[in-house]
Specification:
Elements: H1 6-26, H2 38-69, H3 74-101, H4 104-118, H5 127-151, H6 161-176
Length: 177
């Protein structure tokens, strides 16, 4: 007659529990769309914001030099073309990252942001018209950021009374400075 001690029984239960949890953890039903984790989505959104800001900065500098210096800036601008191409490819890559793990409203806002960024006319002679295009990019960035905040639940909800109170107090302190 063999006796099973409590230590042996506990080890057996622990072993079967870890095997069962591993099997359950691997279960992924087919056909069910899965979004990335909150951290994955935040990283993809941050990458698109960073790259769009860099792209906008280069385009703004490019257009400003072109408008102010004219043909004298051509040699400098030709030297910056490979960087512009690299940033453009990074922008498309970041958009694909958002498409991979983002939600539908965020993807739509990301596509609007990329479209506004790519619609900047670098050879625009009229400064006011270029400024309107630049403002469209900034508003598209703001809309994308708001969609990201909503997706990641950074925006306060109606039932979060303490959060609303702290936010109002913080804004009052900012105004008072």
């Amino acid at each position: 007659m063999t006796f099973i001690t409590s230590g042996v029984a506990a080890a057996g239960i622990k072993a079967t529990g870890s095997v069962t949890s591993a099997l359950i953890g691997r279960y992924r039903p087919k056909g069910v769309p899965r979004l990335g984790s909150k951290e994955d989505r935040a990283e993809a959104y941050r990458r698109l914001l960073d790259v769009s800001t860099r792209s906008f900065g280069y385009a703004y500098q490019f257009a400003h030099l072109r408008r102010e210096a004219g043909w004298a800036a051509n040699m400098v601008l030709l030297g910056q073309l490979p960087q512009m191409w690299e940033i453009t490819s990074e922008l498309m890559s970041a958009l694909h990252g958002v498409r991979l793990c983002g939600t539908v409203p965020v993807i739509a806002a990301a596509e609007d942001l990329v479209a506004a960024t790519s619609d900047l006319e670098l050879n625009e002679k009229n400064g006011d018209r270029f400024q309107q295009q630049a403002e469209a990019v900034v508003s598209a960035q703001r809309a994308f950021l708001d969609a990201c905040r909503e997706d990641l639940s950074y925006a306060r909800k109606r039932w979060q009374l303490l959060r609303r109170y702290k936010e109002r107090r913080f804004l009052r302190q900012q105004i008072g400075r």
